[in-house]
């Protein structure tokens, strides 16, 4: 059963015009159903609040054979990632905006807490990503390999260095700018440079959550896209409460 209170109270609209809608997705909310479980999703919220978008977008057929509606959805965020999610409102804008994502023309910035202090202040991670054989839901970065690996590039820079005030463990606050859009890309790439995202239960399962966080410390902070009218818009998502609290106890 859909929890309408959760959907209506916690989804904030960041931007809206006749073609584009951008929301601040809460952590813990899936973008659309995976066909295996029944739970609230962004797609449910769209259908409830924008029923005219029902036939906008491309339905997805799950491995179980169920047709999943994805009204207006042109990209995704992981369940535990919060932040900017773009939704389109017409079939024409769906084609236009989707092509920007496919052609890597969309500029995205993510903010994240990671374990440790990187040696450098900024860098470029150019490491192919592929699915692991032992753990199907996990991905890995193995530079120089071929086969099922796909190229992936992430630019990053340090915003702040500090420690978790409760235990003194080193933590850094980073900005990531993915140039490709692979599954778990930022998480895999930060793991690859030995600074995994704080509270990442897949890529840092043996590490404790720090800074009072109880979920993946990754937030889609900003996105810049071109509208069908030819204008560029930059949309930012305010930090959720858990990020705000973490920043307050993040000591230099």
Can you characterise this structure?
This protein has 252 residues and is of the alpha+beta class. It folds into 2 domains: 1-105, Pseudouridine synthase; 106-223 and 239-252, Pseudouridine synthase. The chain has 5 helices and 14 strands. The protein has helices spanning 4-10, 42-49, 91-102, 185-192, 241-248; strands at residues 12-16, 20-25, 60-61, 67-68, 82-88, 107-115, 122-126, 129-131, 139-141, 153-164, 170-178, 218-226, 232-236, 250-251. Mean pLDDT is 87; it is low at 1-5 and 143-147.
Task: Give the gist of this structure.
The protein has 252 residues and is α+β, with helices and mostly antiparallel strands. 17% of the residues lie in helices and 31% in strands.
The helix/strand order is: HEEHEEEHEEEEEEHEEHE
CATH architecture of the largest domain: 2-Layer Sandwich
Looking at this structure, what is the CATH superfamily of the largest domain? Pseudouridine synthase
**Continuous helix count:** 5
Helix content: 10-25%
The gyration radius over C-alpha positions equals: 18 Å
> What would the CATH topology of the largest domain be?
Pseudouridine synthase
What structural category arises from helix and sheet content?
alpha+beta
Q: What does the largest sheet look like?
A: 10 strands, mixed
Task: Give the CA-based shape.
Answer: globular
Share of residues in strands: 25-35%
